[in-house]
Amino acid sequence: MSEEEEQDASTVSRRDFMKTTIVGIGGLIAASYATSAVAYVLGPALQQEAIDWIQLGSVSKIEMGVPTLFKATLKTQTGWITADEEFTVFVLTEDGQNYVVMSNVCTHLGCRIRWITEKESFFCPCHNGAFSKTGAVIGGPPPQPLVRYENKVENGNLFVKRG
Q1: In the list 66, 70, 119, 123, which could disulfide-bond 56, CB 3.0-4.6 Å?
Q2: pLDDT of residue 163
Q3: Tell me, which fold does domain 53-161 have in CATH?
């Protein structure tokens, strides 16, 4: 090979240099857009929601020996959707010091239960499930007692940990 042919083979033409440069810049732009898009789409799904204490209300509202219904409205975020969710529980105390916080959802099929004062028990209208005032199953198809929540009292207010 002559010296001139070697020089032509080792040099890059202007056209090839421009092609390579444009493809490289385009690749960098595409990668930056793709990284941003992936972070935007997957970000909320990867976030973990912190479990906080939910304030139910004053303990002075709780009648001794009778389950008392408490409701709280929570803002929840699932992915990009923010919604208001109603959190409802029954609270029972026998001594004014220790509290039992129970779900108002039947463990059979998820229906809402209600307290029947005359029968001293909770009743599920969907399939005639019955629970004692402490949440234990006393009749019907529910397989488990009512779900209980951890709770605490601060400054005369009852808080529940939902987890």
Answers
A1: 70
A2: 62
A3: Rieske Iron-sulfur Protein (2.102.10)
